[in-house]
Amino acid sequence: DIIFICVGTPTKKNSNSADLKYVFSVANELKKMISKYKVIVTKSTVPVTTGDKIEKIILKKNKRKKFDVISNPEFLREGSAIDDFMRPDRVVVGADNNESMRVMRELYAPFTFNHDRFIGMDIRSAEMTKYAANAMLATKISFINEMANICEHVGADINQVRIGIGSDKRIGYQFIYPGCGYGGSCFPKDVKALINIAYNSGYAAQLISSVEKVNNDQKNILFKKVVQKFGKDLNGKRFAIWGLSFKPGTDDMREAPSINLINSIVENGGEVYAYDPKALEQARYYLKDIDVNYCSDKYSTLKNADAVILVTEWKEFRSPDFNKMSDLMSQQVFIDGRNQFSKDQIERKGFEYFQIGVK
User: Is 186 an annotated catalytic residue?
Assistant: First the structure.
């Protein structure tokens, strides 16, 4: 009765647009199979008007319309997808007739029983909602990172600024943690796609374009701190990398800031010893052309290291044994890409400490 299209929509090579070949492949299969009324649900993140295109593909075979195409974008976070599915903040459904909307309300009733989280709208607005949500979150990340960079130049502390602005209920604390840039399968891809959607419709998306540029630049911030401390010639220098995935709770290495950092260190003559609780196998694929030493635990990376660089804020990195670290390392330098510690705390342990957004 209900068919979900849940395939990937990666960014096309040499283009910012979403590649819809997998979506259209499903549509071409469906057009051969529909014999009675179906609700065809696009769950994949697709550009606005994709629902219209799916309908046209299926209508080529089914001149008498026995289906409705609707949009039901997913809002699942990596690392907590089942939780998000069982207890959604909202269920967004875009449909152009009452019958298909009724079917979807009935389907999602068990998940929206306690609170009315079902939000109905037209198809194009639903398709746009997914991109707008991800672009908003990406904007918050790039905004706080830009504020961090300004803080470094003027001598302010972004950690204090974050508390000051986050206490405003209109702003809040979510997604305003300074760091080394966002990555993953959604934000980079969807921001690029939204810029392209706007361009193809005759509008230049200036703000979203800036969000992408700030993020691309931010992925180099950790290497800039390496250069600040050691200079650009890193021959004979050894670096411990803590965390490789784009965020904790997943092994996803797509667009991860660790890739930029490791590439830059190795290109400038440095040695890299890296550890991640889950992403080592993926890292070997994404860094297959780079000479990286992969370690089985966080302390193994530290032997004779000139600096440790925290890239991904896994829980196991929150309370390390600093005395053990000092014994293992040749220099006590800690570069924190997620501002996980306080400056006083680390400096009391004898480390020279570098943060994002703190001079």
Answer: yes
